[in-house]
Design brief:
Blueprint lengths: L4 H12 L10 E9 L3 H21 L14 H6 L9 H14 L6 H6 L11 E9 L2 E7 L9 H9 L2 E11 H10 L6
Antiparallel strand pairs: 1-3, 1-4, 2-3
Helix pairs in contact: 1-2, 4-6
């Protein structure tokens, strides 16, 4: 999956403001996330990290050097910095959840950020929206270009470490499912 500076700018706009239904593709990828506590702060954390990463992707040079992390929330840097970091409890629990799901080691912040380089092909999704569907449940919607199987482990890492207690997905859903939820469901976090 190739991203461009233009597609990253559009993704950044969707992170800032819920997109219009007529702008949607026929299908979207969906992750169902159960969170500890209120879902709105969870969505805010996810959006803050993704907004910073997508903005870096649109503006930074990716030339085998460390990317600047000043715009990345501190809790995400801490959880993505190996055993020396001191992340908050919600993030530590999410790291453990991710490891239990995948059996992999936690992500390093620089490896994670490099997934947002425009020429990086392994990130098979772009942010679409998040909807609150219960007292502690969030549905995260992504543009997956109609694919049922796509690279998304960097997203799963973020969803877990932002405070999830359970993450299901991805599943491919008709855009009408998102549109009905976005229109009639609880308001999003912004």
């Amino acid at each position: 999956m190739m991203h461009s500076v233009e597609s990253l700018e559009k993704e950044l706009a969707r992170l800032r403001c819920r997109p219009r239904a007529e702008a949607a593709t026929p299908v979207l990828g969906e992750f169902m996330v159960d969170v500890a506590g209120e879902p709105a702060p969870y969505v805010d954390r996810v959006r803050a990290v993704l907004s910073a990463a997508v903005a870096l992707g649109a503006t930074s040079e990716f030339e085998d050097q460390d990317l600047p992390v000043e715009s990345i929330p501190g809790w995400f840097i801490a959880v993505s910095s190996g055993p020396g970091g001191n992340p908050p409890e919600f993030s530590r629990n999410g790291r453990d959840l991710y490891v239990s799901y995948t059996g992999w080691v936690p992500w390093d912040i620089q490896d994670w950020l490099y997934r947002f380089a425009p020429e990086e092909e392994s990130r098979g999704w772009e942010w679409w929206d998040a909807t609150l569907v219960g007292l502690s449940r969030v549905r995260v919607w992504v543009d997956c270009w109609g694919e049922s199987f796509f690279g998304c482990e960097e997203l799963r890492w973020l969803l877990c470490t932002a405070g999830a207690v359970h993450v299901d997905g991805p599943a491919v859903r008709d855009v009408e499912d998102w549109a009905a939820e976005a229109k009639d469901g609880p308001a999003d976090a912004t």
